[in-house]
Amino acid sequence: MKFSELEYRRPDVARIQKDYRELVERTEKAETEEEILDIWEAHQRLGREYNLPDRTVYIRNTMNVKDEFYAGEKAYFDSVSPEYYNTMNQLYKALLEHPKKQVLADKFGKIILEKMQVALNAADESVIDLQREDNALVGEYDKLYASYMVDFQGKQVTLPQLAVYMMDGKDAATRRAARETDGKWFDAHHEKLDDIFSRMIQNRNEQARRMGFRDYSELSYLRMGRIGYDMKDIENYREQVARDIVPVAKQLMELRMKRVGIENPKLYDLDICFKDGNPEPAGNTDYMLDMCKKMYDELSPETAEFIDWMFENESFDVLTRPGKLLGAYMYNVTDYGPFVFANWNGSAFDVETITHEMGHAFQAYVGNKMGLILELVEPAMETCEIHSTSMEFLTSPFHHLFFGKDTAKYQLQHAEDAMLATCYGCQVDEFQHIVYQKPELTPAERNQVWLDLDKKYRPWIDNDGLPFYADGGAWQKQKHIYEFPFYFIDYCLARTAALQFFALHLKDPKEAWKRYVELVKKGGGETYSDLLQQAGFRNPFGEGSMKEIADTLATWCKEHQV
Fold it and tell me: Averaged over 237-245, what is the pLDDT?
């Protein structure tokens, strides 16, 4: 069935919650393992009943935020979801307290009990009102961001469309003008963006305090479902990146600027990778989609089956347009399948986006086919991002389908950007830790924190007096900071694994793909650290691990200059 044909019906959430309360009572009275397993199966049915319409609404709302019906339905789910999940957590609590709980670990692995405990610790009935308010703030932000439309060179363009001009390799004046135009839009809306974020910090920190945490930075680790590492591990990881990755990334950026012949690079120059222009896809959208189909048809039997399903069901929306939410994501629609959302603009980034999101979608497709339970079909985010980020590199033998003669240029740019993105991701993460731990900071002081972190993680940045950027507001362009707090570091952790997949792929492509599929099939059945160990890779929390990865990638980049 095509996603557009999927019927939507608002679920009877009150009845679902009533059924959950009855399951709690059954659990308290249960005496056998068979009863516990029956209760668990009933929980799975209720979860699917809620998730299918919830996820359908989310996708259709992001496809057109101006659609009043789905905007209203999303507001409904934003309102009821905190209480729904709190009710579900009461079942988790009853099961965890039951003497026969081990039967769940025996059947699904010990991690299921850990995940239930983390979910339970991350929620509390006392914060339901604040969670509703937080959801509404995210909706307010989404609506504002989706309204982005500017006039440039006599045309009305969206942000993804403007980004094409920001990467004009032939004309620095055009690049600067595009950045100025972008900065002016954010300057015009910065007070509203600051106000929304200030209320988010206040709200989320209050949630944390009610639940006994110092601030939201502590609570976020539970909300992100992190198992096996903590804030100190992440802090150590960031410091390794600052010490071992940043100097190497700076060298690669200097090499890039030398390659393009720019002596004193400014912010608007940094995305220019080659003197004769950045690599561009060899065809239009239809061509790109055809090549995407061909790539996955040829990559493996598993991906061939997967991509057939995606195309037969038209389970993607990749073109940018007014009213569409910016960004890209994959959402696994319960009892249907994966859906990929993107905003293509005709740049090389489209290929990175589609391989990334298809990596997520492939894992979801495999997990659904294996019949993994709701708790295991979707791993924690740092593991999810391994599937996506690794796919960007493992599809490298097929990049020529998209770029033709520019293939080598794209692969070099992609590898360099992986190093640069790791630095940026750590900057985003440290910024969030600081502003939540210091909620008294004014908007101007928050911006100064961002500028200070530029010096630590991206010392090559020169904002050249650009509006918005020179004032330190660039963090407001990162949607994750508003919508998914403390998520962004997961991209960095995943990239650590992805780059090791890439290194293995260069030596033995078949072995790399074999290990990747094995990892995908595990879904959320293992912790991040255990998955890395089982794949034969280094854990990024180990001292010196980042230097080895940085040196390997830097050597490859230096040997493959174009």
Answer: 96
Q: Is the pLDDT of residue 108 over 80?
A: yes
Measured CA angle at 107 (ends 106, 109), to 5 deg: 65
| Contact in structure between 216 and 204 (CB atoms under 8 Å) | yes
In a domain, 7, yes or no: yes
Average pLDDT score over residue span 500-522 = 95
119-168, pLDDT tens digit by residue?
A: 999 999 999 999 999 999 999 999 999 899 999 999 999 988 999 899 88
Whether residue 188 is contained in a domain is answered as no
Interacting residues of 537 by C-beta distance below 8 A, sequence separation 6+: 497, 500, 501
The C-alpha atoms of residue 114 and residue 134 are separated, in whole angstroms, by 26
The verdict on residue 225 lying in a domain is no
Domain-embedded: residue 362: yes
Q: Residue 345's closest CA among 406, 280, 391?
A: 280
The model carries a pTM of 0.92
Q: End-to-end CA distance of the chain, in Å? A: 45
CB 3 within 8 A of CB 314: yes
Question: Does 289 have pLDDT greater than 90?
Answer: yes
Residue 169: pLDDT above 80? no
Buried/exposed 179-188: b ≥16 CB within 10 Å, e otherwise: bbbbbebbee
Look up residue 177 and give its two tokens: 């003008």
Where residue 548 falls among pLDDT bands split at 50, 70, 90?
confident
> Cα–Cα distance between 396 and 408 in angstroms, integer?
10
For 547, half-sphere exposure in the C-beta direction (CA atoms, 13 angstrom radius) is 7
Q: Dig out the tokens for 201 from the structure.
A: 């910090």
* Domain coverage including residue 7: 3-134
Number of domains in the chain: 2
Inter-CA distances, 199 with 138, 215, 222, 393, 482, Å: 11, 14, 21, 39, 11
The two structure tokens encoding residue 89: 């957590």
| pLDDT of residue 292 exceeding 80 | yes
Chain Cα centroid distance, residue 553: 23
Distance (Å, whole) CA 220 – CA 209 = 12
Closest CA to 437 of 473, 486, 480: 486
Mean pLDDT of 48-58: 98
| Three-state secondary structure of 226-241 | CCCCCHHHHHHHHHHH
